[in-house]
Amino acid sequence: MNDSMPPRPTILLVDDDKHMRRLLVARLEALGAELLVAGNAQEALSLLGRTRPALVLSDAVMPDLDGFELCRRIKADPEFQDLPFVLITSLNRDVQERCREAGVDDHLAKQEEDVVLRIRLRHLLEGRYPDPQPRFGAAVLFASPAPSLRGMLAAQLAPLELRVEAVATLEEVPPALARERFKGLVVDLALPGCADLLARLRQAANPIPVLALYTKGREDDLLPLEARLQDCLAKPLAAKPCQHRISLLVRMSE
Predict the structure, then answer these.
(1) Residue 73 and residue 95: Cα distance in Å, rounded?
(2) Per residue in 206-221, pLDDT tens?
(3) Which DSSP symbol is given to 209?
(4) Cys-Cys with 230: which of 59, 133, 183, 209 at CB 3.0–4.6 Å?
């Protein structure tokens, strides 16, 4: 055994559906994580009494204790309050509000494309939680050729006190990063040359976390950039997912 190799992160997967568990195990293999599998919430709580995973991925709808209540119980324990908890669900109604109330860090649709699932979970596996709440008043840099999109993002993030500095081309990104330390970079994949820019940014001494905006239905555009992204968000932008994803990027940027 090579002692210099970093330990593989552990994901605790919780789902009462055997078929769905098998599908998720297969989909998670590409993350290179160790998997612990629980068939219900009580089994998951029992496992947490003996080990600490890097992330919990749970179904939302389960008998006895559902995923929301499981998250509440886990987060109520000071030892696990900063443990990233992700719901995977087919629910649509009020899911954002219910996740926020339960303390869920992120949620994914059961039909989520594999590349999106990998990017979003890797972000949580690699990230840290420096504060119990995001520190707002910070700035993010946004590169997009669309004036309407630039204005929309600034308006959507204004209630969070996140300032957006917008540029229209990728050539403007490096000078902007030299002027100010941004908490995150949001890049619209409609701009050509994203791969080259992201490769250069990753070689920097302190690489900036990057979230990519892609067009819904064109998830394949993310594939060549997957290893260079911390997160992703589909266009057209909806306010609540946009606020959630970018505030999470800022929260985990330090």
Answers:
(1) 18
(2) 889 999 999 999 999 9
(3) P
(4) 209
Radius of gyration of the chain (CA): 18
How do residues 152-166 score in pLDDT, each as one tens digit? 999 999 998 889 999
Eight-class DSSP state of 9: P
Q: CATH says 10-126 is which class?
A: alpha beta
Whole-number Å distance between alpha carbons of 84 and 134: 14
Task: Please give the model's pTM, rounded to 2 decimal places.
Answer: 0.84
How far apart are the two ends of the chain, measured CA to CA in Å?
33
Question: Which of the listed CATH numbers 3.40.50.2300, 3.40.50.1000, 3.20.20.30, 2.40.37.20 matches domain 139-251?
Answer: 3.40.50.2300
